Amino acid sequence: MTGYTATVTVRLEQGVLDPEAETTHRALERLGFELSDLRAADSFEIDLEADSTAEARERVTEMTERLLANPTLHDYEIEVDRR
Amino acid sequence: MTVAVVQFGGSNCDRDTVQALSALGVDATRVWHENGLPTDTTGIVLPGGFSYGDYLRAGAMAARSPVMDAVRAAADAGTPVLGICNGAQVGCEASLTPGAFAVNRGARFRCEHVHLRVENADTPWTRAYEPGAVLEFPIAHGEGRYEPGADGLTELTAADRILFRYCDPAGRTTEAANPNGSAGNVAGILGERDNVAVMMPHPERVSLPDIGPTDGRGVLQAFT
After folding, report:
1. Are strands B41-46 and B110-118 parallel, antiparallel or unpaired?
2. Which of B11, B56, B97, B144 is in Cβ range 3.0-4.6 Å of B200 for a Cys bridge?
């Protein structure tokens, strides 16, 4: 067994309104910053023991689909690194 | 013979719901989620509140608690199940109903009275109303923007599964009358079968004559 850290990034699908990101965007502009767009995302770091990167990825994918992301709203990316 | 009002950590409309049902002569009990459903459960309410502090997404944690397996089984067996506000978020997160509730368009918590138009009066939840009737209900939510997913709204509309839409006092479903940016002004929907319903507005808060209007009684009469 090897230790892995999986980083799961969950974000709203393109086209889904994100009022919090829009508010943050406007707040940055009020502070005088220039920016073209701002997207918010949630990031989860999961430490786990697995026999291979593939196994770690498979388990974390299931965790993401069962809980971390809502398929109606979200896209997700998973990166797996040896710890 | 009892309606189980399922209480999660952070539920806060469970007592109001029991009181509103009791006023209609319906036997109702608060049920702590870890204790499971009583064997004589004849109806289920997932009440409003902030279960699990809205961690991750509103309703996400409660939707995955063990009691929801029993709720799903009861729903499949035809038991009436109603999700109100946080309970609606739980219902969608648990796939009892399609789609999801996202952060309000204005990014603010909205606590006010709104108008609802009855879209389908041929359901247990709406048969007390005339089709097209305009009702006044309170809302109190930060994540009530209904997102039906791709083609979801078309499918729900075609199957007549929309119970209520936000409207103005004249019954027009305008943008201005939409408090949270819900797709199609949708305020409440049915599950695959009409014994399951979720809605963001609070029927239990407009059900007691002593404290004001009673437009919400019609929804709760599904349990009588």
Report:
1. unpaired
2. B144
